[in-house]
Amino acid sequence: MKTRRQLQDVIESMPPLPEVAVQVLALVQDPDFAIEDIVSIVRTDPTLTARLLKLCNSSIYSLASTLTDIRDAVGRLGTRNVVRVVVASCSTHYFADSASRPRALDPHTIWRHALACGVASEVLSERLDVSDPGTAFTSGVLHDIGKVALSQQLGEDLVPTSPLPGEGLVAYERRVFGADHASVAGLVLDRWPVPAEVRRAIVDHHEAHKLLADPPLTAIVHVADLMVLRAGVGAPADGLELEYLPEALRLLGLDAARTDGFAPRFLTELAKIEEMLAV
Ligand SMILES: [Fe+2]
Ligand SMILES: [Fe+2]
Known about the structure:
Elements: H1 4-13, H2 19-28, H3 35-42, H4 46-56, H5 70-77, H6 79-96, H7 107-128, H8 133-142, H9 145-154, H10 169-177, H11 181-189, H12 196-203, H13 208-211, H14 217-230, H15 246-252, H16 256-260, H17 263-278
The structure holds fe (ii) ion (2 copies).
């Protein structure tokens, strides 16, 4: 097992969340934010501006004429899609950079799971009218940021190990790696200016005893994570227990069957955003 100091070195070497994502995340906390606010943030980033214009002018939208003004593009895409593209574009490199992944973690799988959890969190937030969908999306996308740090620290030492009978993810990680991904995420997020609600949702999303005291976004991220894994998006170790925490379901007024029933909706939304990000 490698040392805590090495984990801290990995965390300190991780680039900070880009400023444009930090600003968008802060903005969507305000339920009354205006389209002009998001336009003025996006305008500060030429790469994102170009990406959004390209997306708007792609075959997905089939516009009669080419848009050249980012204000028009944001209006056409809608703030929901703009938040999705900004957050996903600013986060993908943490998960999808194959150069920094040990062979045991497939970059495409870990990124698709992160994106799917973002979409599932957003869908649940909207359906249950809990938290802000953009904040939920961001929390879901970043929920496994601790896995990234943990896997970089362990490098090629990360070998698949079978869970014990009935063992859950957190217990498995603590036994095999000496730390779990959610607590490691806390060390990463200590260095990033994300809203407190987002930090708690990520750090506590497997902590049954904290779910009831936290804002409901924590339960949303927990349920989304498990829903996505149960729908087959992600690669948990074979035999790992994938049960929802009863506290999370109770808090959100759900049961396991109804929750799994959201899967077709989030898979449709996932396909949409994957198409948007591929432009
Ligand atoms: Fe998790
Ligand atoms: Fe996850």
